[in-house]
Amino acid sequence: MKYVKKIILLFIVFFVCPFSVLSQIELSDDFSPKETDLYYIRLLTGEEYTGIIRDILEDDKQGTVLKVKLQIGTAEIPCSGIAELRLYKELYRHNHRLYLLPTADPIGDNYFIGNFELLLLYAGVGYDRFSLTAGRTIIPGISSADQGSLVNLKATIYSEDNITMPGGFTLALGTNLAWLNSANRLLHFYGTGTFTLTRTRLTMSMFYKQGRDDSFVISGGRFGNFGVTYPNGALGLALGFDTKFTAMNDVHVICELWNPDIAKPMNSGALLGLRIANTHVAADFGLSVWTAPAIAPFVSFVWTPQF
User: What is the CA radius of gyration of the chain?
Assistant: First the structure.
């Protein structure tokens, strides 16, 4: 019961509190938008606009006003009515990951707190092209020594924007260290490439498992123990895509295909679901299918605070 209370409390703190306060923005003294920069503007009333800021005006009644060139013309928007203003390319702050698969895009200057399947708490932080993510399970009825942990370090080593269309290509190298419990440790090295198109991101990753053991025992508490076979030197492949609905910025379809050992193509799995996301919060819902065979639902919640 105490674990349930902790999960509910964490959910409230991480995902409810960010929406409890809605206030107007304040422009910094050095705010100087470029004529080619596309901005995303969300009003306190919930309306959303995308456009180029042409000028910053001062009005005796309305205060600071932004003169914005929109697709349907030019509008003057008072800053007193704006809840969020950011570069459009920074609007989707969850592009550094899919469900389980990290993309080649960096976390950047953001950080986040998340919960996967309500049983894994994890967090991530970025600095320039380096991204660090760490997490630990909180499975009720299992001792601390039998809980799982994960640390992932990723470096985005190359990025290039498309010239003729929106998007680009990024390439990253990384390593992750996972503990199925305190006695069983897995080490992976991986390379990931992500192609960004107008509405879709395509990611491909290859990873190599290094370690000492080919077999592991995972404690399931009251459900017993489970054996896992994962040979050393296995080379795996993962594919994923994240595509946005045409008319809805906040809804994405996300899919992942996994094969941890390409020498055994039948040992594969797929994840398919929806992501509902804004600049702060992402909620993922879907189904995973594995050749064990096994089918299981999955959920994930992530909060990325304002920076």
Answer: 22
- Written as six digits, the tokens of 24 are 């107007």
Query: 57 with 76: CB under 8 angstroms?
Result: yes
According to DSSP, the β-strands at 39-43 and 73-78 are: unpaired
pLDDT tens digits for range 176-216: 999 888 778 889 999 999 999 888 999 999 999 987 777 77
Is pTM beyond 0.85 here? no
Beta bridge partners of 110: none
Pairing of the two strands 48-59 and 63-70: antiparallel
How far, in Å, CA of 304 to CA of 307, rounded?
Answer: 9
C-alpha–C-alpha distance, residues 230 and 279, integer Å: 38
The dihedral through the CA atoms of 14, 20, 21, 22 has a sign that is positive
Residue 213 bridge partners (DSSP): none
Which tokens go with 275?
Answer: 């992501």
Q: Please name each of the domains of the chain with its CATH number.
A: 19-89 (2.30.30.100), 92-303 (2.40.160.40)
69-78, 115-124, 276-285, range with the lowest pLDDT? 69-78
